[in-house]
């Protein structure tokens, strides 16, 4: 697989690893999202220094209002983080 295909496969596996621990295998509950963030992006929550940050993130990501984050909503998070990282990288 190419690097991009590998990255996509990792994103799919990461979502699936955490989704469904509490029920629906197609979505992340607030608890599942928090666990995923703590394990996969530990610097994100530590940098915020705000215990309510996960709640705010959940609300921002949950576009359809079902109190869960589906894969499409998860991809929005990943894309936003990638854009933020890209904008901070030095020009080449």
Automatic annotation (TrEMBL):
Q: Which InterPro entries does the record cross-reference, listed alphabetically?
A: EF-hand-dom_pair (IPR011992), EF_hand_dom (IPR002048), S-100_dom (IPR034325), S100/CaBP7/8-like_CS (IPR001751), S100_Ca-bd_sub (IPR013787)
Q: Which GO terms describe its molecular function?
A: calcium ion binding; calcium-dependent protein binding; transition metal ion binding
EF-hand domain location, by residue? 49-84
Alphabetically ordered keywords of this record: Calcium, Metal-binding, Repeat
Gene3D superfamilies per the UniProt record, alphabetical: EF-hand
Q: Which residue windows are transmembrane per the record?
A: none
The UniProt entry's GO biological process terms, in alphabetical order, are: endothelial cell migration
The family database entries (Pfam families) matched by this protein are listed as:
S_100 (PF01023)
| GO CC terms of this entry | cytoplasm; extracellular exosome
Q: Which domain of life is it from?
A: Eukaryota
Q: What is this protein called?
A: EF-hand domain-containing protein
| Species in which this protein is naturally found | Esox lucius
Phylogenetic placement of the source organism: Eukaryota, Metazoa, Chordata, Craniata, Vertebrata
């Amino acid at each position: 697989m190419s690097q991009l295909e590998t990255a996509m496969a990792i994103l799919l596996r990461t979502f699936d690893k955490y989704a469904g621990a509490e029920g629906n295998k197609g979505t992340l509950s607030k608890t599942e999202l928090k666990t995923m963030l703590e394990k996969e992006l530990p610097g994100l929550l530590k940098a915020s220094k705000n215990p309510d940050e996960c709640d705010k993130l959940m609300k921002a990501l949950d576009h359809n209002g079902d109190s869960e984050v589906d894969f499409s909503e998860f991809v929005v998070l990943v894309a936003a983080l990638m854009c933020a990282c890209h904008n901070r990288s030095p020009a080449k």
